[in-house]
Amino acid sequence: MGKNNNLKKINLLAVSTAKNTNSILKEIIRQNKTNIDLKIHFGDVTSDFKASSLVRMNNKSGKNGHLFKTNKIYTGTYHKILASDHFSKDLETFIDQLYRHSDAYRYKSHNLKNLQDYLDYFHILADAISHEMLTKKINHVLFFNIPHLAYDTIIYQIAVSLEIPVTIVTQSLFSDKFFSLNKIEDYGNFNKKNKTKIDKLVRLPKLNLFYMKKIKQKNENPGHINFMTILQLLMFVIFKMPSSVVRPIYIFKILLRIQKIYKSFPKWRDPFANFFHENELSYFEHLAEFEKNKINFEEKFVYFPLPMQPEMTTSAIGGEFRDQLLALERLSNILPEGIKIYVKENPKQGSYARGPLFFHRISRIKSICFIPSYADTNLLTEKAIFIATVTGTVGWEALCRGKNILVFGHAWYKDFPGVIKYNDCLTYEEIIKKSSTEKSLLFKFQKLMAISHDGVIDRAYTNLVKNYDVEENINKTAKSISELILKKQEVTFLKT
Fold it and tell me: How far apart are CA 40 and CA 71, in angstroms?
């Protein structure tokens, strides 16, 4: 206890927007009353500031009001982020993530229209948050997921620029385990300083990808317009084109296009279940052209399944390869003549980052074959020479099947044997000569589980834990995160 009293007081900024992580955060503070003081909480309406209002650009406030109402005057306190070597990269990342809340992808969208709008907003937000952080003397920042939602990303960028320590915790795909790190680019780099005893496992666990249960790997009868389709179209008309209510011919033409799209895809691939926009029509009409493509398993190919965008897997840990076509272009430069790249679209993808120029650009890569949505991923993995991905879970699944994986981004499994991390000097021969054994994979996985932490951060993963107990999870998770903040426990991922 005396030792704890000598520790420097932690003035904490926390980003926590879910009820379960708010409970964990509350327990962290309760367990560390003398060492950790929660100075700023970005979360829901019960927090200091409502985080989502910063990307939706609405007036919904937290208990301390709205950030812009408490920071109305330019202060210049964010000058260090402007002076950083990575400012241009940070700005591009912020704009990419904020664009997901634009007019084309949300019914209730922000009102930023052009590049200057995004630049102006970045400067305003960076100045306001920096001023708040410096005023409250923040000396540690905690994230309950890898920043990827614009508002958390700019907080992370400011913390890095001001050299404020950061702790990031993020859910793993494995039962009752979460990862930790201090820098986004460290994700997947095993912390060699962590000397935790390795647990013994008999075999590699199978993943329970519950969020993909409705996705099938086969063709079936086409879908048709349903209640959700009509509802989404109605939402589009109300929020985006109210004047079209008096244009029945326009609505009828849209319905004809929608019906034609449904007839082009298997019924499990519901294009308009979650959102409708005119851009979605164009995207799915273009995508439908590939549904009749035949797959030739006799030719040599590399399999590249496209991760969904916008998501953490691309917009945060993808690095520069959040531009997936850049990864495909680099891959095509590596491959010898005659080897194809089989590209499969993510079955949950919408029109985000999939405009007409996306398909034009991909058509310029002659080695690419765009395959149907129902193509069997397992068979493609089995027949492929190797698998290439930005950070996708398909890489881990393929690795467990004995396939080599080329990774372009910061995948959590990038330190495993059999994984090749892309670099500009990489050759095809280097990729195919890489090898791994089930024993070496198992040993590495044992190490990963040993340096991970017990508990559930993302409430969607509670169903993976047998006899899950809410209070027990809050206590043990809060204890581990407290020790991470106080440097009493090593992080999972650290570039050493």
Answer: 14
Task: Sheet with 140-143: list strands edge to edge.
Answer: 49-50, 36-43, 10-15, 140-143, 166-171, 177-181, 453-454
Cβ-contact 126, 132 below 8 angstroms: no
pLDDT for res 3: 45
Q: At what angle do helices 227-239 and 248-262 cross, to 10 degrees?
A: 140
pLDDT tens for 212-227 read 667 777 788 898 999 9
pLDDT at 172 over 50: yes
The helix or strand, by DSSP H or E, that contains position 481, with its residue range, turns out to be helix 470-485
Number of domains in the chain: 2
Q: Residue 63 belongs to what domain range?
A: 2-195+452-485
Angle (CA) 450-140-162 rounded to 5° is 120
Q: Calculate the CA dihedral of residues 104, 109, 110, 116 and round it to 10 degrees.
A: 0
457 and 429 within one domain? no
Alpha carbons 77 and 75: distance in angstroms, whole number: 5
- Does the pLDDT value for residue 85 go beyond 90? no
